[in-house]
Amino acid sequence: MVSKVVVTLRLYLCILLLCWIPKLYAFDLVHEPISPIPAASNLSPEKIELGESLFHDVRLSKDNSISCASCHNLSKGGTDNQPVSRGVNDALGSANAPTVYNSALNFMQFWDGRAFNLREQTNGPVHNPVEMNSNWPEITHKLSHDRPLSERFARLYPEGLTADNIQDAIATFEASLLTSHSPFDRWLKGDAQALSEQQIQGYRLFKSYGCISCHQGANVGGNMFAYLGAVNNVQSYFQQRGTPINPPDYGRYNVTGELEDKYLFKVPSLRLAVKTAPYFHDGSVSTLQEAIRLMARYQLGREIPDNHTEAIIIFLHSLVGEHPRLTP
Amino acid sequence: MVSKVVVTLRLYLCILLLCWIPKLYAFDLVHEPISPIPAASNLSPEKIELGESLFHDVRLSKDNSISCASCHNLSKGGTDNQPVSRGVNDALGSANAPTVYNSALNFMQFWDGRAFNLREQTNGPVHNPVEMNSNWPEITHKLSHDRPLSERFARLYPEGLTADNIQDAIATFEASLLTSHSPFDRWLKGDAQALSEQQIQGYRLFKSYGCISCHQGANVGGNMFAYLGAVNNVQSYFQQRGTPINPPDYGRYNVTGELEDKYLFKVPSLRLAVKTAPYFHDGSVSTLQEAIRLMARYQLGREIPDNHTEAIIIFLHSLVGEHPRLTP
């Protein structure tokens, strides 16, 4: 009778210990290839505020029809959830609008890295004929008739309302759009309860399949270029897409003109992936399931079973942090 | 006799095959956690040139004694090879000057990430009392007496010589300082001959010990924050250093004031590590051997045998790319 109790107690102890192993494991993960998103700091609150109103200002477009926020809707994950965006006169863009959240953490801007920072990035949509189709002299001319706005600029910048200062204010606002305190980041910082077992398993799979090779760092991407079709042939990638290869598919080649940069794209951040369908530079993929399947096949040369894909998606949900504009 | 020839031929074939395996392996490494440094693109050559002369302009400092290049010597790997730098009046700085090469690829600037980009970074040394100890009105006033310089600004910027445009030109020049075409990058792109066997072994060790967890992406770092003493206690790290903990050792805490950011530092790029001794935020470590030993102990909780450390250093040599100013 006594020995039976001892055996039962031992069994309970074993079960208890086994339940604790994943938690111990979580605490031990101190050198992960992903780091928490830092809090935005050192940005002038007045410039952020000015930048936010400019971000929503349709006068940045030729016919006063669209603003930055038209394609980077802050309540839709900082995108428009369209394959490609529509500019002035309903013109169709050529690339999927990436999220503006956490974009300050990317090593370069645009899918092909043609801008070095957010400030330089603003030149793109402003001048693009299928986006805002405008230019800085036109914009500063329009805005200079807005007396209160000019006064706000004068208070914050010695030179007042200039193209440079419009760019600076918008870039400052965008740099403030960091989504910190995600469950994953809290887990990284030691809160073992922040992730479910399934999320931890999804993260392990994300690492073991090799997704982590490119999606890494604070932004879980945005830190390097990678060839589309790194393992499997890029031609067969476009074949399965079913539409011909167009210049926007050439990636960084469009910036450098070097043949070796053909089909080279900036690795996108996965921080808000669960909120920013559709996917890829052409917005051709509607679901994360399909995006993971294609990335596995063409970037890693693997087929991932459905239950593993689901676990990875559940992990991706844990990457979503907080920002007042994201979840009002 | 015939069977002897067959056996010998088989042996030769085996040796030949074995010799080829590392080369095949090298070709197969298509999804590595490090990517080649992209070529600088899309930067105005005239602004780069103007930025370069400003980068060397001592009038940016209070007493016209130092320029950006004083602490970021382009022929010394973009640093001054001092533990901490000396500013005006020989004042001693508080942090090791990181390399300016490839700094455009970092997700934030400074050891504590207090600037979001290169442009914003210029505010730091200009105002720091132990660096240039100046300010923008003073600098623009001095420079405005330089007629040819003012004319260069007027040709390139609508607003001419302003603080903003000085910052823009310097940041543009700095963004051009990318060291591409390193042996490692050529190897990544498929040139199996670009690395020696020892370098490939060093890279494998770099990954298997876990250095890669933080030093990743195009810049082999500069993509996340990490706690100093992530595994081993930070206090014991400072104990072995032998000098008391000072405010500059607090890292990102100095920016955010959050206790959880204490001892959090931007992971530095290793691209030019072999050229930029001494190491760490305080420049307290003179050699790569010691730097690797301490990082292994305090970040990874490992002791690395000497021959492995040497292999890793030999790998680090392969990360050094080319730039006309780096190797004249």
Q: Any overview of this molecule?
A:
2 copies of one chain form a homodimer. In chain A, 42% of the residues lie in helices and 2% in strands. In chain A, α2 packs across α8, α10 crosses α14 and α13 crosses α14. The longest helix of chain A has 27 residues. Chain A is globular, with a radius of gyration of 23 Å. About 4% of the residues of chain A have low confidence. At the A-B interface, α8 and β1 of A face α8 and β1 of B.
Note the main attributes of this structure:
homodimer, 328 residues, mainly alpha, Cytochrome Bc1 Complex, Chain D, domain 2, 2 domains, two-stranded antiparallel ribbon, 2 strands, globular
Give the gist of this structure.
Helix content of chain A is 42%, strand content 2%. Chain A is mostly helical and 328 residues long.
- How many helices of chain A in DSSP terms? 14
User: Largest interface, and how many residues on either side?
Assistant: A-B, 57 and 57 residues
Question: At the third CATH level, what is the topology name of the largest domain in chain A?
Answer: Cytochrome Bc1 Complex, Chain D, domain 2
Measure the end-to-end span of chain A.
61 Å
Instruction: Give me the CATH superfamily of the largest domain in chain A.
Output: Cytochrome c-like domain
Number of domains of chain A: 2
On the 0 to 100 scale, the average pLDDT of chain A is 91
Beta strand count of chain A: 2
Q: Strands of the biggest beta sheet of chain A: in what spatial order?
A: 1-2
Tell me the fraction of residues in β-strands of chain A, as a range. under 5%
Shape type of chain A: globular
| Radius of gyration of CA atoms of chain A, rounded to a whole number | 23 Å
Query: Which CATH top level class of the largest domain in chain A fits?
Result: Mainly Alpha
pLDDT < 50 stretches of chain A: 17-29
**H/E topology pattern of chain A:** HHHHHHHHHHEHHEHH
The CATH architecture of the largest domain in chain A would be: Orthogonal Bundle
Major pleated sheet of chain A: 2 strands, antiparallel
What percent of residues of chain A adopt helix (DSSP H or I)? 40-55%
Overall structural class of chain A, as computed from helix and strand content, comes to mainly alpha
